[in-house]
């Protein structure tokens, strides 16, 4: 085989796979120039050759048998776009062991088996690239590993799930409730029929585990990521947050502090003038703080056929450049350390607390006194309306340990005038 | 010399040079891990060894003679941070010819002599990297050349000059005039004693020439970039723009359309909900549109010791990775084509026009009729106040060729009730 042509095998030809196929063909000439070699898709693995694809693939390029790709020595790059752990993990590991470089968009696979896969790639002197696994088309993995490599990364704040960002944006814009916006999102194709992984924060947690492992140079076990979804957010919370000049976003938060690393995904109040506060609809953005660069943010489409295809093709070009020069393994795993991940109870943050209380004199005093006993001090308080029944009392605290706030709220819920602790949402500055 | 240590020579130790020195030392362990080799500064070229530097450099690392670095075979990477064309160009070319890879933050040098330098690097099989030349610490050059390499880039909109962005932000926030804000910026160190290159748009033009050459894969001659600074922007323009829901920013605009490439730097009205509209103070951002990714934006500090140091060190690490693997030349010049750059008169855009007119019946009719004769149609019109003398009349047009608008305005200026064509600013969607 000539060095001037590099053969690619695609595993899967769904949304992203067809995007990759389209991008490679549409911009073929320019891509060949940049890669220094023609990148040709030789085989595409599909479940059923007779099923219609979102892109025209000639019959002779289709196969239903993975070993057709695995055993084809001309194929030097395998692109895994099946998703999920099985059989993706096996296909990836076997490809690497057969001397093929692998590119994937599979965040679950990397978050759960990244170490094993990266080690296997290293042992076999091939590349494993995964730009598309976080932030769809947004360049973030390679910038972290190269342009920002001189920094000690101290903070990562990401809006990394388009479905939940769409839902929260619409709840804000339309004053609508979660359920109705979710339904609307499903109709528009922005949410899956089973939206659990998105709305419960799992998708964002996979992405945070990947970003944090690279940013903090220490493998972050997916089980160590605290996860809370957005199903408990009401239109009232969004509207009260706005009165305090905050937006509510599902944030993936990674921080390195002196006593360890924090990794958590949860709905978060973020100041309206923060660059992330204006990231709306299905857009994603990743805000990075480093000791040299200060603050930087990467913004763009977090999903979709062509944006994700763009990220995968960027990886294919990078790997092709390495193959041309025999420089595979150029960007290896960067988890050099083994840092402590804090328990949720050790994390210190600010909180938004929404209570339902009886509209009686002295209630606020009772509550703030009790909070004070647990070292919780107030930044702002707002009582909404007057009523013979209960009224909402909204508090924003200064920084406090999660353990302390939970104990304090347990006590508060026992106070007579307190009808309900209606919501507790973290606040980021 | 062991492969596990790579020697670096720094040319210049001013703001950026001392930043590079600091970053390399501060994060030495992590940088060594990532580069796969210890990166040691062996020699620093300064004008005068006795002058105090912003960072502690041991005497034995200082030299006043460039040939000490040029002829030191152990030095494999030269970092040029002198700025300007002479002697930077000679130093860079000689270093490349002596087999050293070169990194620079020098936008003027690249914009004016990029082709010669990149060819020399290629002929000598070494690297020439320049991430810090655009957007300070913001990763943008490498993302364009790698993560986004699968795209045909169609549009580049950049806020790439911190000084002018600071001035326009303050004029907007404080309702202040240009001159007083410029003075304030100079006192704060955000503007130079001689601010010409910033406020007249030259600095932004260099950066646009670099971005466009990479984005459109065709060398953009700096002389082909249309440049207009911000000195003609008044607080009235900013306030009227706001009434139409626009902000005024100094934008570096590159577009590829069917009939050629447009490259222009000028004050621009941009809709308030555009991601660039909220990039304030000295921050920079580059908004990119590609056929696969759609829209993406890179935001961060556009200047400063540590952010620019961060970008340079990112390049040093990348080049070190190439040296370790013998993969120099991995990211060569990507100007594969020779595209036509449009003349300013061929460019079609929308315009904001501010006139001073007599407050008489029929004036608006006269003006819009005349504009209509030159194919200029109106999108919005606003007349401010009433007066016996002249009043401002502000128009926003639909798309029109620059040639047509200029002829139309010449005719309009001759109308009796028109006292002055006070300003003409382009509008971007």
Automatic annotation (TrEMBL), chains A, B:
Catalytic activity: L-homoserine + NADP(+) = L-aspartate 4-semialdehyde + NADPH + H(+)
Catalytic-site annotation from UniProt: 207 (proton donor)
Spans traversing the lipid bilayer: none
Protein residues bound to NADPH: 107
ACT domain segment(s): 352-426
Entry EC number(s): 1.1.1.3
Pathway membership: Amino-acid biosynthesis; L-methionine biosynthesis via de novo pathway; L-homoserine from L-aspartate: step 3/3; Amino-acid biosynthesis; L-threonine biosynthesis; L-threonine from L-aspartate: step 3/5
Cofactor field: a metal cation
SUPFAM superfamilies: ACT-like (SSF55021), Glyceraldehyde-3-phosphate dehydrogenase-like, C-terminal domain (SSF55347), NAD(P)-binding Rossmann-fold domains (SSF51735)
InterPro entries in alphabetical order: ACT-like_dom_sf, ACT_dom, Asp/hSer_DH_NAD-bd, HDH, HDH_cat, HDH_CS, NAD(P)-bd_dom_sf
Binding site for L-homoserine: 192
Enzyme class: oxidoreductase
Keywords: Amino-acid biosynthesis, Metal-binding, Methionine biosynthesis, NAD, NADP, Oxidoreductase, Sodium, Threonine biosynthesis
GO biological process: methionine biosynthetic process; threonine biosynthetic process
Entry's family note: Belongs to the homoserine dehydrogenase family.
Protein name: Homoserine dehydrogenase
């Amino acid at each position: 085989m000539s060095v001037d042509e590099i053969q690619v095998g695609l595993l899967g030809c769904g949304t992203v796979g067809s995007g990759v196929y389209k991008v490679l063909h549409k911009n073929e000439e320019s891509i060949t120039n940049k890669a220094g070699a023609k990148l040709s898709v030789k085989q595409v693995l599909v479940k059923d050759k007779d099923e219609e694809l979102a892109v025209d693939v000639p019959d002779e390029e289709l196969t239903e048998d993975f070993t057709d790709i695995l055993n084809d020595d001309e194929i030097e790059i395998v692109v895994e776009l099946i998703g999920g752990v099985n059989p993706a993990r096996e296909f990836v590991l076997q490809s690497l062991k057969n001397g093929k470089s692998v590119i994937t968009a599979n965040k679950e696979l990397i978050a759960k088996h990244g170490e094993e896969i990266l080690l296997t790639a290293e042992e076999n002197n091939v590349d494993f690239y995964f730009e598309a696994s976080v932030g769809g088309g947004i360049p973030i993995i390679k910038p972290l590993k190269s342009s920002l490599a001189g920094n000690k990364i101290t903070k990562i704040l990401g809006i990394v799930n388009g479905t939940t960002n769409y839902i929260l944006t619409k709840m804000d814009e339309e004053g609508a409730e979660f359920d109705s916006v979710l339904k609307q999102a499903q109709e528009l194709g922005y949410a899956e029929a089973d939206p659990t992984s998105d709305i419960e924060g799992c998708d964002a947690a996979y992405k945070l585990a990947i970003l944090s492992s690279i940013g903090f140079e220490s493998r972050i076990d997916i089980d160590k990521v605290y996860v809370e979804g957005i199903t408990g957010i009401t239109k009232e919370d969004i509207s009260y947050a706005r009165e305090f000049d905050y937006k509510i976003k599902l944030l993936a938060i990674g921080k390195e502090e002196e006593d360890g690393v924090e990794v958590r995904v949860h709905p978060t109040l973020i100041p309206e003038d923060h660059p992330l506060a204006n990231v709306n609809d299905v857009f994603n953005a990743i805000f990075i703080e480093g000791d040299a660069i200060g603050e930087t943010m990467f913004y763009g489409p977090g999903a979709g056929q062509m944006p994700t295809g763009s990220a995968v093709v960027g990886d294919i070009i990078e790997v092709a450049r390495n193959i041309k020069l025999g420089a595979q393994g150029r960007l290896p795993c960067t988890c050099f350390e083994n840092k402590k991940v804090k328990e949720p109870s050790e994390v210190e943050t600010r909180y938004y607390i929404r209570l339902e209380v009886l509209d009686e004199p002295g209630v606020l005093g009772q509550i703030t006194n009790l909070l004070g006993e647990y070292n919780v001090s107030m930044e702002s308080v707002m009582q909404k309306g007057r009523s013979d029944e209960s009224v909402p009392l909204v508090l924003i605290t200064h920084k406090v340990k999660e353990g302390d706030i939970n104990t304090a709220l347990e006590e508060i819920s026992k106070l007579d005038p307190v009808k309900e602790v209606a919501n507790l949402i973290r606040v980021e500055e």
